[in-house]
Amino acid sequence: MIRWAQFALGAFGLLTCASTAQAQDPFSLDPVMITWIYADSPALKDIAYDVRQDLETLIYGSYLVVPLASVRPYDDYDAETYLDSCRVDGQVECGYVIAARGSASWAVVGQMDSPTPGRPPQLLLSVVDVANSREVMSFTTAVTIDNHQAIADGLSLVLDQVLSGAADLSDDRQRGREMWELRREQTEVRREEADAIDRSGELDDLTRTIVAREEERIRVDDLAEYEGREDGTPWDRVGLGQREYVRYQNSGKSLDEWRAIRRGRAGTVRLRALGGFGSGPYHHTYDGRFVLAADTLQPVATESFQQLRGGGGSVFGVELGLGILPWLDVNAGIATRSIRYQATVYQEVQDEPGTVPRPLEVSQSTVEYTAGVIISPLPTYSVRPIAGAQLMFWNGRPVEKVLGLPPALRSFEQPSGIFLRLSPGVEIQAGKQVLLFSRVNINTRLVGGTLVEDRSGGDILIQKAEVPERAGPFGAEWMFGVEVPIGPFFGKGD
User: Fold this and answer.
1) Quick check: helix, strand or coil at residue 404?
2) Which of 98, 372, 403, 482 has the greatest count of CB atoms below 10 A from its CB?
């Protein structure tokens, strides 16, 4: 365990003017759970319970708080019973177990010590990184009747540092300066090497070699004297067109090598890895709001929706193709797409409107599958145009995989869609068995991506959400990749 900071009682006098609503930036909002505050004496048990409830409420508007009540119960007892019965030497571990069961990324566990003469009860709050199963920070403060807000403010500052990684910023800047110095030194070395070559006269020799090589190349005009010969033209005898024969002669390759190139994609297996960036109707918006009865605090009405919106992101994937013709392969692929998930969860007591928290945004990945064809009409050219046509089957991210929803709100099916993809591009023969390519994917949604809503309990919610317009059906990405052909496994005699 790492005890990163110990704050004294006097430090919290400065925190009363802070606001937990200013806690952190949207990208660092991970699910947080105030699990339990343990008391070392029965007399403090009710105070500890009240402090836990207050902390959960006070930081609710600034973080994605997973309520303890939302944790799935065990067969014979609920989460509160499990925590309350935890042994003294395993209290932090018990908080971790319940936070993980509630799909929280961070757990806050408290331990309250009995007061001594002239000294109020002391509260030790520990923050646990659930993913890595370790305590990352803790601090101590006094507990009085009216300083629960100050404790919440102090907890917010600690959570800000933990969730944003602020402690590592100075190290990042130092690494950046070192990298800058290294790049500058490498640039100076390359410049000195280039100057040395220029002074040696090697560039002039290279220029003369290129000119001599160009003079040896044949042109279409050079073949005019062979036209109309009774024994046939040289290009007819090898089964090539006139222009292709010129490129064959200038390539320096044997006729067998040229014919192998001419077969193009036919009979080969094509392995492709690709990545890029673009935008389209893939980002998610979820808004869930519910009303609690003033007397029972039980849910009496809900309003929620799920909608897709446009935005940018990266795409990385692989494809497997099979060459059917010299200029065509059929293929299937899988890719991951980065998206932004924007969510708002708001609860309201009946006839008492509250403040709607700002939307939370987290990065997520979605999966898509493709099937289609790639056309490369000029297999003997080292730089050649390509075009693709594919169907893309895209699966979004279900809300329950992102948020720990309160029991009052229902989940929705994950968004999905079928897209028609057209992909003009270019590929370069970088080696005998390596191609580099670039494509522009133009995606048009054919099916899916519709608004999903759920309303129950009547029109009693005061702070209503505005449903955004549905994103348009079009998207595009600029993709780059490398392709490795294997084979051919058939069609060698064509």
Assistant:
1) coil
2) 98
Q: What is the mean pLDDT of the chain?
A: 80
Domains of the chain (ranges; CATH) run: 9-164 (3.40.50.10070), 192-261 (no CATH), 265-486 (2.40.160.20)
- Whether cis (ω within 30° of 0) applies to the bond prior to 281 is no
- Tell which residue, 16, 20, 12, 14, has the closest CA to residue 123: 12
At 431, list the tokens.
């080696």
Positive or negative torsion for Cα 207, 212, 216, 220: positive
Residue type for position 421: R
Give me the half-sphere count of Cα atoms (radius 13 Å) on the Cβ side of residue 41.
8
Spans of the chain below 50 pLDDT: 1-28, 167-180, 182-183, 186-187, 190, 193-194, 197-198, 202-215
Long-range pairs of 236-243 with CB within 8 A, sequence gap ≥ 24: none
Backbone angles phi, psi at 222, to 5 degrees: -70, -15
* Token reading at 452: 């999903």
Q: Are the C-beta atoms of 31 and 64 separated by less than 8 Å? A: yes
Following CA atoms 38, 41, 42, 47 in sequence, which dihedral angle do they give, to the nearest 10 degrees? -50
CA distance 132 to 134: 6
On the CB side of 261, CA atoms within 13 Å amount to: 22
| Residues contacting 123, CB < 8 A, separation 6+ | 37, 51, 110, 111, 112, 113, 140, 141, 142, 143, 151
C-alpha dihedral (80, 85, 89, 94), degrees to nearest 10? -30
- Do residues 5 and 76 lie in contact, with contact meaning Cβ atoms separated by under 8 Å? no
Write the pLDDT tens digit of every residue in 143-178. Answer: 887 787 888 787 777 777 777 765 432 333 233 334
Q: What does pTM read for this prediction?
A: 0.54
Cα separations in angstroms, 384 against 28, 439, 440, 476: 45, 12, 15, 22
Dihedral pair phi/psi, residue 162, rounded to 5°: -70, -50
pLDDT digits (tens, 9 = 90+) for 41-59: 777 888 888 888 888 888 7
Is residue 308 within 8 A of residue 470, CB to CB? The reply is yes
Interior/surface letters 458-487, b for 16+ CB within 10 angstroms, e for the rest? eeebeeebeeeeebebebebebebebebeb
Q: Look at residue 305 in the predicted model and tell me its pLDDT.
A: 93
